[in-house]
TrEMBL record:
Protein name from the UniProt record: Detected protein of confused Function
Family: Belongs to the leguminous lectin family.
Key words of the record: Lectin, Signal
Annotated Legume lectin domain residues: 25-121, 126-233
InterPro entries according to UniProt: ConA-like_dom_sf, Legume_lectin_dom, Leguminous_Lectin
GO molecular function terms noted in the UniProt entry: carbohydrate binding
Pfam families: Lectin_legB
Protein's organism: Hibiscus syriacus
Signal sequence, start to end: 1-24
Length: 269
C-alpha cells in the first residue's frame, strides 16, 4: 500500500492560512448613534445627527469611529485602499470660510494630533494635509459638470455655508487620492474635484482612527448626517439614503401669485 506524504497537506494548509485577505472594514450609518462614534469636546449626537461644533464655542471638536481600523497590510508598507463618503451641512452664513471641518486619519484621538495625522479639510475649498503642516493639494469647493452632448466640462463652484446638504466622496487606491463633492440629489460627477498622486505609506500606521475634526469660529455648527467607509467595497457609499434628510435651509416666505380671469375672479397660478 502506497502512503502519500503528509507534509504536502501541511504546506497546502499553511499557504491557505496566510493567503487570506486582511479583515475588511465596512460600515454605513444612515444617521449616527452614540454607539457608533467616540465623541470629544463639543461634539454631540441628537436625532441621529452628529453636530461637531456649536455656535457659542471656539474650541475644536472631534468624532471618530468607535475603534481603530487596519490601514496597512501587516508586515508591509502597502496602504489598504479605502472609500468613504458622508453627508454634511452648515448653517447659512455670509462668511463662506467660517465653516471648518476635516475628515481625518490619526493614531491618537487627543486634541494635539500625532506625527501620523492625515486629513482632508474643506470650508471655502478642499485641501489635503498631513501632519497638520504640509498642504499637498487645494481646490475651490465645487464639482465638474460634463455635457451629454459634446463631453465638454464646466466647473460649478459651491458655497458650502448656505445651509444645503452636500456629499463628499474620498477614494484612495494605488497611491492615488480622489476627492469629489457635490449637492445631494444630483448624480455623482464622473470627474473628481481632486485627483492627487500621493503615497500614504510614510504617513499611515498599521492601525488608525478615522473620523472628523472641526474647529468653530463661534458662529457656525457643522453637521454630519450620514457616513460610510469601506476598504473592500468602493460602491458601498451608493447605498447611503439621500431622501428625507434634515437641512439648515429655511424656506423664504413667498407671496401667492394669481391669474386674472375677470374683474371679480382670480385663480391661483
Amino acid at each position: 500500500m502506497v502512503k502519500h506524504p503528509k507534509p504536502l497537506l501541511f504546506v497546502l494548509m499553511f499557504i491557505t492560512m496566510f493567503s487570506q485577505p486582511v479583515s475588511s472594514v465596512d460600515f454605513m450609518f444612515n444617521g449616527l448613534n452614540s454607539t457608533d462614534v467616540l465623541l470629544y469636546d463639543r461634539a454631540n449626537i441628537s436625532s441621529r445627527i452628529l453636530t461637531l461644533t456649536d455656535e457659542t464655542s471656539f474650541a475644536a471638536s472631534r468624532a471618530f469611529y468607535i475603534s481603530k481600523i487596519p490601514t496597512k497590510i501587516p508586515n508591509s508598507s502597502r496602504v489598504l485602499p479605502f472609500s468613504t463618503s458622508f453627508f454634511f451641512s452648515a448653517p447659512p452664513s455670509m462668511n463662506r470660510y467660517s465653516f471648518n471641518i476635516a475628515f481625518a486619519f490619526t493614531t491618537n484621538t487627543d486634541n494635539h494630533g500625532t506625527n501620523s495625522d492625515f486629513s482632508i479639510g474643506f470650508s471655502g475649498g478642499v485641501v489635503v494635509d498631513f501632519n497638520n503642516l504640509v498642504s499637498v493639494s487645494y481646490h475651490a469647493a465645487g464639482y465638474w459638470l460634463t455635457s451629454d452632448f459634446d463631453g465638454d466640462q464646466s466647473f460649478e463652484e459651491l458655497n458650502l455655508n448656505n445651509g444645503e446638504n452636500y456629499q463628499l466622496w474620498i477614494d484612495y487606491a494605488d497611491s492615488v487620492l480622489n476627492v469629489t463633492i457635490f449637492p445631494i440629489g444630483i448624480k455623482r460627477p464622473k470627474h473628481p474635484l481632486l485627483n492627487v498622486p500621493f503615497n500614504l505609506s510614510d504617513v499611515f500606521e498599521d492601525e488608525m482612527y478615522v473620523g472628523f475634526i472641526s474647529s468653530s469660529t463661534g458662529y457656525q455648527s457643522g453637521r454630519i448626517l450620514a457616513w460610510s467607509f469601506s476598504n473592500s467595497n468602493f460602491r458601498l457609499s451608493e447605498s447611503l439614503i439621500t431622501s428625507g434628510l434634515l437641512s439648515f435651509t429655511i424656506p423664504l416666505f413667498t407671496i401667492p401669485r394669481f391669474r386674472y380671469i375677470s374683474k371679480d375672479r382670480l385663480l391661483p397660478e
